[in-house]
Design goal:
single chain, mainly alpha, 6 helices, transmembrane, membrane
Length: 117
């Protein structure tokens, strides 16, 4: 993301802000995916924990605010992202989600392992 920011948007600071936001969104994907080793995140059963849902919502809001609020920009050394730059930050978390779901699909398809004797 840093390299993309430098090459496409001509700013290392934009790249760093994109990487920070992308990492925060990947943490949300990981929290969703870690709720079950084999079940998909597309079921409502994965959203039974009220505390976890609130934590993910707050993390999502903070991930956006870090690049949009001047106080966070000064504190963390980020810069404001435009919509096009923010759209690029969604690629790694979406790729992580797709690959994790593919892995879970393959595990479900293979079925439960046979018990060892």
């Amino acid at each position: 993301m840093i390299q993309l920011g430098e090459s496409h948007f001509v700013s290392v600071k934009v790249g760093q802000s994109m990487a920070f936001t992308s990492f925060a969104l990947c943490l949300i994907v990981a929290a969703l995916e870690c709720r079950s080793e084999t079940d998909t995140v597309r079921t409502t059963a994965g959203f039974d924990s009220k505390q976890m849902n609130w934590a993910m919502l707050v993390e999502f809001i903070l991930a956006i605010m870090v690049t949009q609020m001047d106080a966070f920009n000064r504190l963390l050394g980020t810069t404001e992202l435009e919509l096009r730059e923010f759209a690029w930050t969604l690629i790694p978390p979406l790729a992580l989600l797709a690959l994790w779901e593919l892995g879970k699909f393959l595990v479900r398809r293979r079925g439960a392992p046979a018990p060892r004797t």
